[in-house]
Amino acid sequence: EKQIRDIFEKILHKNCIKNISLILNKNKEVFWVIDPIDGTKEFIHGTDEFVVSIGLVENGIPVLGVIYNPVKEEIFYSSKGKGSYLNDLQIFCNEYKSSKEMVLLTSASERKKGLWNRHSKKFKSLKTMGSVAYKIALIAAGIGDTFVTLRPKNEWDVCAADCIINEARGRLVTPNGKKRIYNQKNTLIIL
C-alpha cells in the first residue's frame, strides 16, 4: 500500500496534478478506474500473475496508470506524455516484428479451452498467463510482443494498462484499429 501511495505522489507531483479526488460517478469527465484484483483466478490459485490496476481517465482517455504485482514487487506506472516505468526504470515495447517472430501472451482460460490451437503456428511462441492488465504491462516492458484476446474484457481490466502501453510506444486498439474510449455505457470491450 505504501509503495502504491509513494508512486501516486511521485506521478501526481511530477505532473503537477493536484487535488484530484476519487470520483466514483461515471458521469464525470475525470474519474478513477480501479480493479483491486485483476487475475482473480490466479490470486485464488496462489500464483504470481495477478495485479492491482488503477487508472485515471480524463475525457475518455487514460492519463495515468499504475499496475502493481505485490508478489513480484513490480510496479508499472505511467502518465500521459511522461513515459512508462517498471520499478523506476523507463520501459518500451519491442520494435515491430513479423508474427512468426512474436511472443504472444495469451489467456490461460482461452488456451485451456483450445481457442488458440489453430493459431499457435502463426507465432514464435504462445505464453499463457493470467491477468489481462499484467500481460499488457509486460508487453509495454518488452517481455512479450503482443496480446490478443478472443473473449470480451471490461474497462477496468485494461484502463491502466492502456496508458502504460501507449506511453511505452505501443498501442492498445479495438479489433478495427481504433483507440479505446472509456466511460461508455457498456463497459464490456473487445480488444
Walkthrough of the structure:
- 24% of the residues lie in helices and 28% in strands.
- The protein has 191 residues and is α+β, with helices and mostly antiparallel strands.
- It has a six-stranded antiparallel beta sheet with strand order 1-2-3-4-5-6, sandwiched between helices. Strands 8-7-9 form a three-stranded parallel beta sheet. It has a two-stranded antiparallel ribbon with strand order 10-11.
- α4 packs parallel to α5 (155-167).
Q: How large a portion of the residues is in β-strands, by DSSP E?
A: 25-35%
Order the strands across the largest sheet as they lie in space. 1-2-3-4-5-6
- Label the overall shape: globular
Number of H- or I-type helical stretches:
5
Beginning-to-end CA distance, first to last residue? 30 Å
> What order do the helices and strands follow?
HEHEEEEEEHEHEEHE
- The residue-averaged pLDDT reads 83
Low-confidence blocks of residues: 15-25
Structural class: alpha+beta
In quaternary terms, these chains amount to single chain
Largest sheet: 6 strands, antiparallel
Number of strands: 11
* Helical percentage: 10-25%
- Global Rg: 16 Å
Short characterization:
It is built from five helices and eleven strands.
Keywords:
191 residues, 28% strand, 5 helices, alpha+beta, 24% helix, 6-stranded antiparallel sheet
Q: How is the topology of this model organized?
A:
Blueprint: H1 2-14, E1 30-38, H2 40-44, E2 51-58, E3 61-69, E4 74-79, E5 84-86, E6 89-91, E7 103-107, H3 108-112, E8 125-129, H4 132-140, E9 146-147, E10 153-154, H5 155-167, E11 188-189
Parallel strand pairs: 7-8, 7-9
Antiparallel strand pairs: 1-2, 2-3, 3-4, 4-5, 5-6, 10-11
Helix pairs in contact: 4-5
